[in-house]
Amino acid sequence: MSALLEVQGLTRRFGGLTAVSDVSFAVSEGEIFGVIGPNGAGKTTLFNVIAGHYKPSAGTATFSGRGISGLRSDVIARLGIARTFQAVHLFAAETVAENLRRARVLSTSHGPFAYLRSFGTGRREPDLRDVATFVGLGPLLDQTAGGLAYGLQKMLGIGMALMVTPKLLLMDEPAAGLNPSEKRAASALIRRLRDERGISILLVEHDMPLVMGVCDRILVVNQGKPIAIGSPDAVKADPAVIDAYLGDDYEFA
Ligand SMILES: Nc1ncnc2c1ncn2[C@@H]1O[C@H](COP(=O)(O)OP(=O)(O)OP(=O)(O)O)[C@@H](O)[C@H]1O
């Protein structure tokens, strides 16, 4: 497996606060890679820097061998990195189909030559129905998004990210707010994204059974700094991780 995303010494400061501090890791093609840590550890900021929403204060990110740090978020999206958000971001008054269509238009509508620039990326424009079916919304294309159950709104968020045909998907807490059966569906969907669509995943999540169950490797951050990286079993047994995050009475369900 070759590195799809490589992050080297990535740092992001907000005034006197260092939210992400000298973080390095690589995500291989086909990997499901988790990032965990306590609240405020810098996980979302790390995503925001990789996706181009924030510029790094120091360090680099390389995607498919190309430097991406400092590029605009829409440029990074067109290169093949999409993200989903902790809270659902959708157009509540519009239908599922309209939301998916908007996600596609937004991803290709920056600048007069955006359409032409989408050529040569080697990625085919996805079919709206196909994406809706993949995330379990096939029969609900004409439903208003705001009227969907919360779990289905989160699925729509994933579908919208798929409309840019990503090679890497950054998922910020996909299980937050889901009930146990929706969490099982989310786990299965994450695996299917990789197995059936060949999408590599960078996953931030507090639900430990889900993270430990789906990830190949996990990076643990605390106060912006990396404290461990390895397989779920290695990370679970690491005293520094137990101390900073999991706690002594943590039991893997
Ligand atoms: N735009 C910003 N301006 C100033 N401080 C920020 C900004 N964004 C994040 N921070 C701070 O950076 C630190 C890391 O926040 P971040 O949201 O990245 O943590 P997190 O690990 O994602 O937390 P959670 O698990 O609660 O989502 C926090 O102290 C937060 O207050």
TrEMBL record:
Looking up SUPFAM superfamilies in the UniProt record yields: P-loop containing nucleoside triphosphate hydrolases
The GO cellular component terms are: plasma membrane
Where does the ABC transporter domain lie?
5-248
GO:BP terms for this protein?
A: D-alanine transmembrane transport; L-alanine transport; L-isoleucine import across plasma membrane; L-valine import across plasma membrane
Keyword terms of this UniProt record: ATP-binding, Nucleotide-binding, Transport
| Stored InterPro entries | AAA+_ATPase, ABC_AA/LPS_Transport, ABC_transporter-like_ATP-bd, BCA_ABC_TP_C, P-loop_NTPase
Q: What PANTHER family does this protein map onto?
A: AMINO ACID ABC TRANSPORTER ATP-BINDING PROTEIN (PTHR45772:SF7), CONSERVED COMPONENT OF ABC TRANSPORTER FOR NATURAL AMINO ACIDS-RELATED (PTHR45772)
Name used for this protein in its record: Branched-chain amino acid transport system ATP-binding protein
